[in-house]
Structures are given as C-alpha cells and as structure tokens.
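Predict the holo structure. Ligand: N-(aminocarbonyl)-beta-alanine.
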Amino acid sequence: MIKGDIVVRGGTVVTDSWSGPATVVISGDRISGVLDGAAEVDAARTVDATGMLVLPGGVDAHCHVGLPLGAYTTRDTFSSATIGALAGGTTTIVDFAIPGPGEDPLAVLRRRLAEAETSRCDYAMHGCISSPDGSIPATVHAFAEAGVRTVKLFTTYRDLLMVDLPTVRQVMTALSDVDGLTYVHAEANDLVEEAQREAERAGRIGASGHAGTRPVAAEERAVADVLGAAEHTGAPVYFVHQSTPGAVDLVVAARQRGVRAFSESCPHYLTLAADRYADPAAERWVCCPPLRDRSTVDELDRRLEMGFVDTVGSDHCCYDSVQKAEHADDVRQMPNGMPGVETRLPVVFDRFVASGRISAERFVALTAAMPARLNGLYPRKGTIAPGSDADLVVFDPAATRVVTAGALHMQTDYSPYEGREVTGWPVTVLSRGRVVVDRGAVRDPGPVGEFVAAGPITAGG
Ligand code: URP
Ligand code: ZN
Ligand code: ZN
C-alpha cells in the first residue's frame, strides 16, 4: 500500500491542464502521488474533499506588503499579510523591493528579504529599478544571483519611481541575459499630470473625481510605448494591473507579431466600476490605474473570458480607511491601492467560474499556474504533481459568503468588496504540507514561509 503523511481524497483535482477525481498523497512538504480516486493509501491524516475542488495553492504575483510609497506605509507586515493570503487560498506571494529615492536596489532587496522572514507562506520577490545609472546590467545580474529574475518599472509616479523609455530598454536587455522578465506599471505620466491639472482647475481633484485624473489614453499610450521597447530589444514584458480592454488588445496584437508580452489584471478592475467613486467614502477605491466605467469593465471581462488575460494578481495594498481618508480631497496626495490578497480567489471564482464564464482549469491558470510560470516558480508552485510543493486548497465551489472586513484577516478595517455575496470559498488550505486552514479555521503556522528563488522564465518563448 502507498504510504504518506496526509492524503486528500474524494475531491476533483484541478490543474491548468487537466481536472478529474483523484487522490493526492503528501509526504513531508511535497506531493508524493496523484493517484486514482480509489487508490488505497496509508496516511496519518485524511482530508475529506468530497464535493470540493482540490486546487494548487494560489500564487499572487502582485502583492505589496508594508509598502512605503510617498507619505504612507501600508498597515500590514509579512506576518499579517501572509495569514490573510493563506486564509484566502494563496500559498505563495511575490512582493516588491521598491527603493525609496536614492536607495540602492540591492540593499533594498536584502532588507525586504530580511523583513519577509516572518512570512507564514512562501514568497518570492521582484526587484525594482527607479533611477537610471550605468549599473543596470550589474544590478540585474546580482538580482538573478539572489534568486530574483523579475524587475518592476514604473512609467509614472514622478520623483518617486518613474523611469524613461531608454531605462526600460536597458533593463529589458539586461533581464533578457538572465532569462528574466520586466514587469511594468504602464501609465503615461505626462497625460496623467495633464489630466490632474485639468481636474484641479475644474474642482474635481478629490477621490470622487479620481477616474478622470488617470485616463484610459494614459494607460494605453504607455502600454504601446513599452511594447515598442520590447519589440526593439526582443525582450519579454509583463504588464501589471491592466484595466482596459484596449490595453489587453495591444498586448495580444504584439504577441501576434512575436513579442513575448503578458497581461495581468486584478479582481477590482474585473468586478468594480467607477461608480464606486460616487460613494461618500470614494477614497477607498482609489487605485492606479483607476476603476473604469461599467462598459469598460464588461469588455475587460470579455478579454479574460476569451483567454487574453494571462494572470490575475491582487495588487494588494493594505491601507486602512483612516489613511485613505486623510487626503481624500486630493488624489495626488492620498495613498493609492486597496487590500485584496485574501479575497482574490473567491472574487475571481465567483465572477468567472461560478457564473459559468470560464472553466476551473482556466481559473487555476490565471491564479496559480501562469503566475508561477511567469515568476520562474513552476512546477514547484502552481500545480498539483508529484514533486511539487504540497500547497493545496480544498475549495468549496458552492459555498456562499458575504464579504465583510471584520471576518477577514488582513490588517485593515475595510474591504472594497464589503457586502458582496460571492460563491466559492477555500475550506482547507495546506502550505508545504502543513494544514494552515482547517475547515475554515486559520491555524497560524508561525514564521515558516521560505523564500523561493526564481528560475529562468521561459514561458511564451
Ligand atoms: O494604486 C496602486 N496600484 N498602488 C500600488 C502601487 C502600484 O502602482 O502598483
Ligand atoms: Zn502599479
Ligand atoms: Zn502594485
């Protein structure tokens, strides 16, 4: 008889390439077998997954923990953010080492890796380059040696993080040498600042006017410019938080020309619309890019349904309602972003799988397999296969929940989805063989999360 420490039986195993009834055997921190549903297994513990989906642990490739940006730092720590991640079925996060003005990107990476040692789940890290200088190739090679093969660049946030196109091309070229991937926040800053000046003149610079301060054209022009850089250098590129169907279409068209280009969107761009900015607490939904109007959201959803969006990341930024409200009268001063690492899987499952718009396999591709591939973590993360880490989510596809901040674990007092009823919720979560959510109860495993070094990123090649 096959032996293991834990056996998960009775459920429908789902990966990005197949799904069906199967028994998963775990030995130590790895999956040791994926067997026929009827296989007999001798294990100390059985997790009954009858009626459930058994998914690979979610991989959230866009997570800002304790993010210092401008005058504000998000409220959470690696410990609280990763407890929230686990509670929501995400077992690997990828955070960012974002330098403040004048800081050395490698020193910031070392500091972030030290801070991340309190993580409850595994983590990887993106580097970030925010000031052009002659050391870009050396910095990128040092990142790769440290297990970091993704570097985030911003085309906006002047005086904080913004870089120009020559810098984008230099980073792309250097990353190509190490089989890495450039992550880009694409918004044309000149158009953003022009729109902000216009909004100020019109008395609409507060949170309720946010959508008008960062226009669709700013996002789409920056995406086109950066795709030009990718085409010119022959390097791959990944666009974070795409919020418009036009931005996704630009990526798809570039892909048809042979550019290795990838599109990430976020649960909020796929489900929430700019009518949120009519709420008296409009600031809670201020993020960059902003939420778009309902018809744009519907068209973006269609792109995801058609298979044109590659990943869904949370862009988790755990500010609380007091921080968000402090400068609600001026979006140039207030903190951008919203909490979401814990709600990513249920919100996306509800919107697309429970409603019958995409398959469970495609859901796994968007939330686990592709993020793992595009961060050099696959197949250790993002799938259910012998040898992979034992990161599993026993997910009830029929459970309905009303999202409320008080029942979540993230270090904030509000959720952008407050009051939303969703269908589909994680029941039991295993993280490298530990049961960290047990039939709904979170069991804090302590600071056991490990840094996962990124291997070469070859997807789409
Ligand atoms: O509004 C956002 N997205 N804030 C977080 C920083 C970023 O741009 O990703
Ligand atoms: Zn961004
Ligand atoms: Zn972000």
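The chain has 13 helices and 22 strands. The domain at 2-55+385-442 is CATH 2.30.40.10 (Urease, subunit C; domain 1).
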